Amino acid sequence: MLSRIIAGVDGSAASLAAAQMAAVEAVASHRPLRLVHARLPVADYALLLPPGIAADTRAAGRTLVEAVRDALRRRHPDLEVCTVVAESTAAGALLRASRSAGLLVVGRSGLNTARRGPAGSTAARVAVRAACPVMVVGPVPPDRDEVVLGFDPEEPDAPSVPFAFAAAHWRGAGLRICCVRQFDSDQRPDDATARRAVHEAIAGWRATYADVPVAVDVLTGTDPVARLLDASHEAGLVVIGDRDLGVHPATAAPGHLAEVLVRNAASPVAVVRPPRRHARRVAALP
């Protein structure tokens, strides 16, 4: 049985969109859904709930997450969904939940981001530290279905590849594989060779997901992050791997690509990391 899907819920528009996308993913892949809510300050509940309920943070947290659960059940009667209210920070609760999940879905920004930190800071932190793939969703659902995969020629066996194929399959959508190639000014890249190498690398997955239409784009430029941000405007989901595509480790901190895309992409972004032997240690709380 596939592992459950986890969605973080704090009542913000982005978290509600994340919960809805998580429900769609759960129904399509026949997985149960768990909604995780980290208790909020009374002032935040006052923005979302009637005064009598908001004053009691214990009751307020349960009321909020159960209301989201009930709304999802009305839309998806066959969905298996449960709720958890955590007594910790949002990042801490989500990182713990990721240890037993197959996918974690979170909103790009939560309540009062101006007071708590830059928009997307919690989502970016969770995306690069979680023990399972993380999907980050903005407040406005995408109006496109195509899945875009940022493909690294040096990592043809990365788990982001089968994840992207499966995501396209469940959506009944096409898959666009973007191979971002950097080059020196005095060296013109051989796009045909790069395209052929990509097709060879994904041949097995194309056979497995024969119903998924695949297009391969070889994108040239000095900034792979910018090229994938451009691609996100035409996508329903952008999938990237654990490492920064084409970015030399000496010029970018680990997780740079993931952080920039999570904060700025026009579409939802899935960050897919390889399985880790010590997932609990990786997701350890600060």
Automatic annotation (TrEMBL):
Q: Which residues form the signal peptide?
A: none
Q: Which Pfam families match?
A: Usp
Q: Which residues form the UspA domain?
A: 1-137
Gene3D superfamilies, alphabetically?
Answer: HUPs
Q: Which family does it belong to?
A: Belongs to the universal stress protein A family.
Query: Which protein are we looking at?
Result: Universal stress protein
**Annotated organism of origin:** Dactylosporangium matsuzakiense
